[in-house]
Amino acid sequence: MNKIFRTLCVVGAGCALILLPAAGVLAKGISLTPYLEFPPRTFFLQMPAFSWPMFILCLALILALVCPFLLKALRTHARTVAPLNNPSNRRPFPIWGWIALIHLVGWWVIAWTRFPWATSVQPHTYFPLWISYIVIVNAWTYKLTGSCFLTRHTLKLLILFPVSAAFWWFFEYLNRFVQNWNYIGTENYTPLAYFGLATLSFSTVLPAVASTRSLIEALWPGHTCFKNWINIRPQIQKGGAALMVLISVLGLYFLSWFPFSLFSMLWIAPVALFAGVGLLTGARIPLAEDVRRGDWTVIVTSALAALVCGFFWEMWNQWSLAKWVYTVPYVQRFHIFEMPLLGFAGYLPFGVECTLVSDFFMKRNSSTDPRFASREDEGERTVE
Question: Cα–Cα distances in Å, from 213 out to 48, 298, 380?
Answer without folding.
Answer: 36, 9, 22
